[in-house]
Amino acid sequence: PARVRVLRGNLPGMRSGRVPGRGGGGGGGGETAALLCGLLLLLGAADAQGIRRPSSYKTLRGDAPLVIAKGGFSGVFPDSSYYAFSFALLASAPDTSLWCDVQLTKDGVGICLRDINMSNCTNAAQVYPVKNKKEAKYVIDGVPKTGYFSLDFTLSEIQTTLSLTQGIYSRTERFDTMYSILSVTDFQSNVKPPSVWLNVQRDIFYKQHGLNMRSYIVSILKSVPVKYISSPELGFLKSISKRAGRRTKLVFRFPDNFLSDPSTNQTYSSLSKNLTFIKTIASGIMVPKIYIWPVTNDNYLQPPTSFVQDAHSAGLEIYASDFANDRIIPYNYSYDPLQEYLSFISDGGFSVDGVLTDYPITASEAIGCFADLNASKADHGKPLIISHNGASGDYPDCTDLAYQNAIKDGADVIDCALQVTKDGVLICMSSINLLDTTNVQMTPFSSRTSVVPEIRDTPGIFTFNLTWNDISDSSLKPKISSPLSTYYLVRNPRYTNTGKFVKFSDFLEYGKDQDLSGIMITIENAAFMAKSLGFDVLESLTTALNDAGYNNQTTKEVMIQSTDSAVLVKLKQQKAKYKLVYTLQPGIGDASASSLADVKEFAEAVVVDRSSFFAQSVHFIINQTSLLTDLQSAGLTVYAQVFRNEFVSQPWDFFGDETVEINNYAQSLNVDGLITDFPKTVRRYKRNSCTGLGNDVPSYMGNVTVGGLAQLLKNQAAPQAQPPSVAPMPKLDAPSVQRPPFPTVAPKNAPSGAAPPPGSSPSAAHTTAVSTCILLVLACATLLL
């Protein structure tokens, strides 16, 4: 692509001597340029066709909203680094504007730096000892701040001694101290952005300390083609309005608080009600997202304000700020950053004129490929959308709400993890242990704990400890899953304990009456049920399917999934008419020919955990394993699991954007189905308007280069910053596939010493022993106290 030419030759953003073994001013420019291009060349070979957009938007002039890359692609690389700026050009819409926060040095030169306090975005604190004379204290926005400030350093000091670091702790620090700080003129001459946006945050502060921001900005307008200048100080914009000329748009920026504009002594709240006055100075305004979509104290959206319409009525363009994939966004968006963009550009009945983001690839996707999609009838083509415990990303697992919304959200297949109650009723529940999926510990059933070594070593309250009437009791409620709660990410708190438990017979009715391609039933612990409970889950399953009419129809495919090959072998021997699916253990890297031959004896499809597709080190993809090729070469259908929207669930290589990850599995890996907690995210992906464009697919909707970021670190970072080496992943072999034959079902009237009858606790004596032991421990603890 023509725009890649800016990366050829030396990379002035890479300081000489930063990388051990590298000398010279460019730091290995040609090689590094090829690596950086390689990250995105596989993201799509063609952006010559430009961005694909709907015919019109409800922006001020009907143009597509502008993508504004804050400090470049600062979600990955340090803000305002050469790589951040260059990568943003490759991964975004062709007309993306690159945002530079302008700070002034001691000698009055403008630099691109995200914060006036360099402690937050450079290695100044490491270069200069604590309490060094370079450390200073200033009052910033009315608050005393201590640190290292740009106005205390000359440009030469900054560029020869300091390096950029990542200022957001949730992001990788492995690119820290690799890049020097760019002056505004270096930024323009080296990066050559198609559109430059300069943000001037503190003109008055610099003026109070003997530096003139206005003079600097006016001086560079002759050599730097600046398209946008923004500032929260209206007086500054007014002072440069006559010098800026028609080619530069002035944008008044509202901060995320309601302080006063020091240049007018008016509160931002009062200025927001006087947009016609702002229009006399500026052509646009920029506001935080909450000005447009207010948020409640418990992080849910309120109805939108009229701010966008008011700005347009005043003749002002309006830009929204504060977008980032790794922010905690309102729960209404289900942790999906792309969905949030859509609410600002199409789904809300209005459109902002641009968005300021740390992840320009996601904004480009939203604007170019997902706005105003036709919500037509779902096709059931590849990849299949298979729910994981229903729409469990938004509702408690396997409840009526989870299934109803999975169907509404566009799942092709809904799933049921089959369990049995004390009185032999089949139910759908994601875990056999009620402690995992319900509030049972808060109910009268909390005393029914037992330890079942065949299932787990710790005490639990299991579905077979309670009857169906117990489980459907009003005091027992479902509990929403939080698989990433260690990161303090919880799901849809307002619905934590909502929904009703579902019997298997009711689940089968859901599957029959809806626009689905089929159902998937997961069976685990079947051997335990047969030996210890005297319950034949396979026979009960077959009977239920027959009673529901699934044995004599062809419109709905029935898939039966298990990690236990003996279960699938037994069903195969019974000549079941259903599709048998074998679930591989996580972390398998490849498969032997003998193991694949064994799998093919009893299954025609496999479920593979996402951890098996790529070898990873500290969340960087290192390489792709051979497992997928092995499975596909054997003629097995491959379903990948489990896809989640939360940004911490994806490797760094997918940029905290679940759509990027889904796109890679669908287009590059070509898997047959995606098992997901969020069916609506995958359904929206399948409706996008870009992936069917062939050679015209825009770069931001292509495939990420496998191991591209890790390779970049390997070539440029110091050894201590590189991802640690990883051991080879284990291989699937025949012994790991083979299981003992499915056991004979224990008779229900078993004599003393045999397996207990169905419905009883499977280890009553053991349970009593455990309870006695717990009482003894409590007594001893009391005596000790």
From TrEMBL:
Under catalytic activity, the entry for this protein gives: a sn-glycero-3-phosphodiester + H2O = an alcohol + sn-glycerol 3-phosphate + H(+)
Question: Region Disordered: what ranges?
Answer: 717-764
- List the GO molecular function terms: glycerophosphodiester phosphodiesterase activity
| Listed Pfam families | GDPD
Q: What class does this enzyme belong to in the EC scheme?
A: hydrolase
Q: Which domain of life is it from?
A: Eukaryota
All copies of the GP-PDE domain together span 65-367, 383-686
Q: Which GO terms describe its biological process?
A: glycerol metabolic process; lipid metabolic process
What InterPro entries does the record point to?
A: GP_PDE_dom (IPR030395), PLC-like_Pdiesterase_TIM-brl (IPR017946)
**Alphabetically ordered keywords of this record:** Glycerol metabolism, Glycoprotein, Hydrolase, Signal
Q: What is its EC number?
A: 3.1.4.46
Q: What is this protein called?
A: glycerophosphodiester phosphodiesterase
